[in-house]
Amino acid sequence: MNDPIITIEGLNKTYEGGFQALTRVDLTIQRGEIFALLGPNGAGKTTLISVVCGLVNPTEGSVVVDGFDSVSHYRQARERIGLVPQELTNEAFETVWNTVSFSRGLFGKPPNPAHIEKVLKSLALWDKRNNRLMTLSGGMKRRVLIAKALSHEPRILFLDEPTAGVDVELRRDMWNVVRGLRDNGVTIILTTHYIEEAEEMGDRIGVINRGEIVLVEEKAALMKKLGSKQLTLHLHTPLTTLPASLAQEELSLAADGHELVYTYESRKEEPPGEQPEGRGISTLLAQLEKEGIGFKDLHTRQSSLEDIFVDLVKERL
User: Fold this and answer.
1) Measured in whole angstroms, how far is the alpha carbon of residue 304 from the centre of its chain?
2) How many angstroms separate the CA atoms of 16 and 305, rounded?
3) End-to-end CA distance of the chain
4) What's residue 278's pLDDT?
5) What digits encode the pLDDT tens for the residues 116-143?
6) CB-based contacts of 51: which residues, under 8 Å, 6+ apart?
7) Do 30 and 13 contact (CB within 8 A), yes or no?
8) How far is CA 245 from CA 7, 239, 248, in A?
9) Which pLDDT value is given to residue 215?
10) Do residues 311 and 303 lie in contact, with contact meaning Cβ atoms separated by under 8 Å?
11) Rounded to whole angstroms, how far apart are CA atoms 181 and 260?
12) Separation CA 21–CA 234 (nearest Å)
């Protein structure tokens, strides 16, 4: 995938009063991907979206959207973007149909009832098209926000914390909606502080902290490169200390000596065909047998994106 639809270079944003919300942000979004921008609250996610969407002017740097500079060709850049904000700011007394149709008109697009119908059906809102917004559930109101953002047929959709404060079942429904949009050719940029959401949805993961892009990586490569694995052995007889032959930093005792934990990294570069962790485990088991240490069970654990994220943020505190 090497067709960029958004290119951000040298982006800085300093607000009046001196607060620097973004620092030297360089980022490329590829056409047709789901890009998950992950970061704690206050990390700069919403500011970055606001700059790309033309709602906030950058202090320095440039943003190019589908070939158009976001400042010098604001209108062309903005009409290619749909934005779903965090807040539910719906016109309570309007119907779903009128609200979505009006949003299309705001971008100077001629009426297209067929497109509005298609959007509403794709979001399971067709049966609610004549309902006033005030009568809808919170989940349905969020779907209306997406429908409004899609009304003018954008090529890019920004979802700013789309499932904040909603229950797990609705969150999964939203994920399915987002996947469907991507399958229809819409590029999705998703900001979230839910680790599970980024891990579930993103083709690539970007981590932002204190206004800086800490890392951008394909999800699978990130998990492989930065993830660690743990082998936990449940011992027959608890140990108070590790024998000298096992005294290495990758080994530790847990559960009051009832468990021996071996941590091995999958980030190390090794020659093709070699599996260092496999060799390490074989050596460990042989050492345990030599020491007369028996175990009754074992299990392995792959580090999650949450572990990786916490480590990355800690490194920069």
Assistant:
1) 13
2) 35
3) 33
4) 46
5) 999 999 888 999 999 999 999 888 888 8
6) 11, 13, 22, 57, 58, 63, 70
7) no
8) 53, 14, 8
9) 87
10) no
11) 46
12) 48
